[in-house]
Amino acid sequence: MCEKIMNAESFKSETRSARVKNPCHVQLIPSLFLLLPFILLTSCQDRLGTGGSGELVFSQNQLNQVDTLNLQKSIATTHPSTNPMTQPAGPPPAEMSLTIEQSRQMALANNLDLSVQLFNPTISRTGLTAAEAQFEAVFFTNVTGGTARTAVAPRVIGQRFDQVTADFGLQIPLRTGGSIRIDVPPEWSRTNTDPAVSIYTNTPSISIIQPLLRGGGLYVNTQGIRIAFYEFQRSQAATKLEVIRVLTDVDHAYWQLYAAREALKVRKKEYDSAYAQLERARRQARAGVAAEPDVVRADSGVADTVENIIIAENTVRQNERTLKRLLNDPSLPLDAPTTLVPTTLPAAFPYEVDPARLTAAALNQRIEMLDLELQLAEQTSNVAVARNGLLPLVTLQYTYGVSGLGRSESQSWNMIWEKTPDSHQLSLQVQVPIGNEAARSNLRAAILRRMQLLASRQQETLQIREEIADAADTLTTDWQRIIAAHERVVLSSRTYDVEVRQFGLGLRTSTDVLIAESDLADAELAEVSAISDYQIAQVDIAFATGTVLGASHVDWQPVSEPSVPRY
Predict the structure, then answer these.
(1) How far lies 319's CA from each of 103, 105, 241, 259, 314, in Å?
(2) How far apart are CA 563 and CA 567, in angstroms?
(3) pLDDT in tens, 465-477
């Protein structure tokens, strides 16, 4: 510290001599041009996480838009209403007509499972922005002050020495793995001699540190951003799958309610036929054509049909509650007595499906395959980074510094800008691990995980092929069931008419008529079941291909991020 203390005359003479040797010579500016490529490299970060750091990027339409499956182009489609169905305020209506398009709109707007899932892409997006923040510059400062007096002899204390040091600077991470550090450490010191001597010292410096092998390069150092981006896309894909699942569940519930209501109509028709037979038996008994047991059998048949109606009504109520739960509309609470009436008619058309074409579409559109592709891209990136870990650690560091000294702050800075006592330092550090087993193990693990995902993709491909084949067979089988059930209805209806006429002639009993009536009801129920199962089979084959039925695309949007203060 004593070397910093000088008298005023020697300081002034040294300053004048130095100024004459290097008048207005500035050596800091040329060195700054060396930093220009690094500064430009750190400023061009606008495409990080969107392909600029080597990510596999899927289009937004593939992630957000749910396509539809048109099984037969000649079939006329009904476009959904542009405005979702709304209900006026007040008590729930006693009955509500509901199309399948309205059901889908209400589910997309209100379904709780979907509402929860829509938060996941937004949460994953915050992880991506957090990963991108690793290249943000950091301003730092540190100020330290102190005073001291030391003993120079027994019972003799030296002059008091005061000192204030500070460090102001900027740390700039580089996408290449290095960093730029700018330090401006001013220092003030004073020795309380007579007169007191104050010295101002400034030694600003700029350092560049860059790994050349291990840990160097854009690809390795943007790994965190790349992984966060893949996870963000996976969360979008998972949300799209949830949208498809919700729409599929709504379609299932809609057609199950349709089947339950049609079955209730069949049971009521069966009751009307049984009651008509009871009236016929009573007339025949009064005319003396039929015996009294025929009236008793007909009366018992009416009682049986009443029980069937009660069970069918309960089934309708349960299916209504299931659909209301999926719709979650405020105007349709689960305990409301509102009766839902499906108005969309089933598409009882034969479809000629091509399993090979559907399989190709499923392999391209299924969210499970998209998720596996994203995982494979992530593991491929991990393998590349693990290979980089095998390299030796070679770090290059360059430091350029200047210094200034003066009795005042302005004198110290004048010395820096006018005479520039500068220094250059270049260092190279090399570390070569002996054996390098940890890095080799990491690479082997990354390769094995990628091979495991490749096997999973083959397994998923085989499962999708099986699902498509099963769905196509189910669709064809259900159509054949419709044809067979309709033929059975026609024949059972004829048999019932014959039995009724034969009863009028006294050639059949009420038991024969009730059996024919029950067979007709069973045939009609089988036809209803076949028709509803055929609609559900269409929904399932669309789900197996990663799409939904309908005429319009579904484009979902995640929940908006909340605004937070910067600091």
Answers:
(1) 14, 19, 24, 10, 9
(2) 12
(3) 999 999 999 999 9
Give per-residue pLDDT as tens, 237-291: 999 999 999 999 999 999 999 999 999 999 999 999 999 988 888 888 887 776 7
**Residue 215, helix vs strand vs coil:** coil
Cα(464)–Cα(365) distance, integer angstroms: 11
- Token pair of 257, please? 């309610």
Q: Which residue is listed with tokens 């490529």? A: 37
Cβ atoms within 10 A of the Cβ of 543, count?
24
pLDDT score, position 10: 44
Q: Considering the entire predicted model, what is its pTM?
A: 0.76
Q: Which of 306, 231, 229 is nearest to 267 (CA)?
A: 306
Whether 82 has a pLDDT exceeding 80, the answer reads: no
* Pairwise CA distance, residues 548 & 540, whole Å: 9
The gap from C-alpha 110 to its chain's centroid, in whole angstroms, comes to 19
CB atoms under 10 Å from CB of 256, counted, come to: 20
Question: What percentage of the chain reaches a pLDDT higher than 70?
Answer: 85
Amino acid in the structure at residue 9: E
| 439 confidence band (pLDDT: 50, 70, 90) | very high
**Whether the Cβ atoms of residue 443 and residue 449 lie closer than 8 Å to each other:** no
Q: Is 277 within 8 Å of 296 (Cβ atoms)?
A: no
Amino acid identity at 382: N
Asked if 406 and 189 count as a contact pair (C-beta separation under 8 A), the reply is no
Judged against a pLDDT cut of 80, whether residue 77 lies above it is answered with: no
First to last CA, the chain: 41
Report CA 351 to chain centroid distance, whole Å.
34
Task: Read off the tokens for 36.
Answer: 């220009």
pLDDT surpassing 80 at residue 331: yes
How do residues 404-434 score in pLDDT, each as one tens digit? 887 887 888 888 777 667 888 999 999 998 8
Summary mean pLDDT of the chain: 83
**Of the candidates 346, 111, 398, 372, the residue with the CA atom closest to the CA atom of residue 244:** 111
Is residue 525 classed exposed, middle or buried when 0-12, 13-18 and 19+ CB atoms within 10 A define those classes? buried
Strand partners, 425: 399
Q: Kindly state the average pLDDT of the residues 21-37.
A: 45
- Report the SS3 class of residue 438: helix
Domains of the chain: 2-56+136-220+394-441 (no CATH), 60-110+225-379+453-555 (1.20.1600.10)
DSSP string, 77-118: -PPPPSS-----SSSPPSEEEE-HHHHHHHHHHH-HHHHHHT
Evaluate if residue 85 carries a pLDDT over 90: no
Q: CA torsion, points 448, 454, 459, 460, in degrees to nearest 10?
A: 130
Cα–Cα dist 503/513, whole Å: 7
Euclidean distance between CA atoms 117 and 557, whole angstroms? 11
Is the peptide bond preceding residue 80 cis, with omega within 30 degrees of 0? Answer: no
